[in-house]
Each structure stands twice: as structure tokens, then as C-alpha cells.
Amino acid sequence: MMHPLSSTIRAATFLLIMFIDGVGISLVLPLIPDLFGTTSSHSIVAPEMSPSLRSMLYGTSLAAYSLAMIFGATTLGQVSDRIGRTRTLCLALAGNTAGYLLCGVAVILKDPTVFLLGRFVGGVFAGSVPVAQAALLDMNAKENRMNSIGLVMFAVTSGYIFGPVIADSAVTFLFGRAMGFQAPFFLVAGLCVLGLLLLRSVPEVEAGKRDARIDLSAVFSNIGGLVGNRRIRLVLAGFFLFQMGWSQFYQFVPYLLRLEFGLSASTTAYVLTTIGVGMSLAFCWLTGVVQPLASSRTVALLATVSLLLLTPLLPVVTHLHWLAVLGWTLVLAIAYGLGYTAALVLVLSFEDPRRQGLILGSAASIAALSATVTALSGSYFLGFGVFMLLGMVSCCYAGTLLLLAAAGQPKSMPEKSESAT
User: In what helix (H) or strand (E) does residue 381 lie, and over which residues does it extend?
Assistant: First the structure.
């Protein structure tokens, strides 16, 4: 029987890995407006570079991570079937360490190409959450699995919350401006090394199968398996537009706050942290509160309407007190969290329950794909000004409403919601 201390260390190791994955998404957002979007001493691009090219590099740095993650998440899951989960997690942490070190070195050398390479490498190895989640579930009895899933959600959303805090604190307080913007990347690389050291004491729970195949096309076959049903196509298209609207806002709000509206780097980090808090409240608490009160279709529609009406207010709230900005951001993040969960439940209610795994896998692929598309398209729209970018976000939400309305009401709504991960 496993010693309680050993069990605690193993669980903490898996949760640390999932926390690092969450940090990887949010850590860079407060930093890249200064790295690509300004001519300050922190910029890693040439001073004479045009604003349009700077915004394109900003978007490319986000797209490189998301694009690599689309294939990385699918591939790591298949690799774990072949070599085992613990070894796969070691591989993922080693890759993440390399990615963060490359980004830190790129900041020192002021080389945007190396930075983009670091983001791509980090994205390839950032899809370890499903593997770590499976390993955590393996070590718990079936009656404790609901608690394990709650811990998974807590670890990932904590990464979203603390990523911007780590970025701002590492630059401002822990290492000081003298060390520069490379500090957060080196700090998280250190966390990856800590995870590697802890994994050395974790035995393999489930041995891999040497004959397991690795199929890179699986990321597309997930979605392809659902497109035969017209109503499913409408709901999935609505879900895709919903994700595009949120991704474009989340990816470019740091750029807008820092460079268009002149907010400080610390305030921008607090805004991103507030987004993580709002998403955590929605996923971990408010979904359960709202679920008995309205159908998932109603919640999805109301959340989308809220996002459609509130997002264009960004230029207004930035001229108010910074607490107003945080309050507005919190409401947006809660609306997104509720809308995401409700839209996912709506998709599930249109499909055979036996295909739930396929639907959840498709949702993850759609989320990553939308982040890649918006990272590239957002940098283009940004060249036409703030209102063009916000207008495109609003168009995505308007399209979502039309598609969900066209899909209609499912014959029977599920009794309980599924929380988003």
C-alpha cells in the first residue's frame, strides 16, 4: 500500500505540471506588449520596425504557441499510451524547460526569431494536462475521482491566475528591472526543473504499449466525426465563433491596455489575473449555481449577449478608475466561463451520450484552433485600429447568437452541466 506522504508528493507533482501548463498561456501576455509593441529598452525588435510589423510579430508569438499546442496535446496523449505517463510527463517538462529557456535567452539577445522558436517549442510540450490528469485519476479510487477532477480545474485555473502575477512580480520585485523581462521565463523554467526532480520519485502507474500508434491526424478526425449532423454543425460553428470572440479579446487586451490606453504593466497584469479569477468562479462555482435555474441553451445565449454588449465598452472603462476596469473584466470572464460551459453542454445534448469523449476532444481542438486563427487575424485587424478589433470580436458573438438560434432547442436537455476544463 502506498505511503500517504508518497501519495501526496505524487499528487502535488501532477498538479504542479498542470499549473505550469496554465501558466504557459497567461505568463507571456503582460510581457509581449513591451517585447514587441514598444520602442523601449525592453523591446526585442529593431527600433525602426513599423507598427504593423510589430503587431504581426505580437500575433505570431501567440499563434506559434497555440498552433504547436494543437498537435502537441494530441501527440503527447498518444505518446503516453506508448511509453507510459510518467515518462511522457518527463518529456513534456523537459520540452517546456527548453522553451522557456529559449524565450529568456531571446530577450537577452533581443532576437525575435529565437523567441518565436521558444514559444513554438513550449506549445508542442504544453499539452500535458490530459496525461497528468489521467495519472492523477489512476492513483485515486473511483469514489474520489470527482475530487480529483476538481483539483485538476483548480490547478489549471490557478496557472491562469498566477501567470500574470509571476510575470509582473519577477520583473518588478523578485529580480528587479536590471535583470529585465527574461526573469519570468527563467523562473518558470526552474519550476519545470523542480517538476522533473519530483517525477524521479514517481513510479509508472500504467506501462505503455510499445505497439501503440501515433496518428498526427487525430486532431482533425475528432471534429470530422461530428459534422454529419446539421444541428451539431450549427452548434459547433457557434461554439467556434464564441471561442474566436473570446480568444481575440483575451490575446489582444494586454496590447490595447498597454499601448493604446496607456495603462501600466502592473495594472495590465492585474486585469489578466482578474480574468483568471472570473473564469475560476464560473467553472468551479457559478456553473453549479446557474444550472438549476435555466437550460444550457438559455445560459449560452444570455452569456453571449452579455459579452456582445460589454466588450465594446473597453475604451470607456479604461478612462474610469482602474477598479472599474477590474470589475468590468471580472464580469466578462464570468460570462465567458458560463457561456463556454453552457455551449459545451448544449453540444452534448444534441449528440449521443456514447460519443461524449469525441465531443469533448473536439471542443479542445476547436478552442486551440480558434486561438491560432485569432492570434494571426487579430494582428491584422489591429492595424486598422482599436474599434476594428473590438468590432470583429462583436461580430463573432453576433454570429454565435445566430447559429445557436438556428440550431434550436434539443429534444431533451441534460439534467446536469459538465464543467469546462
Answer: helix 356-382
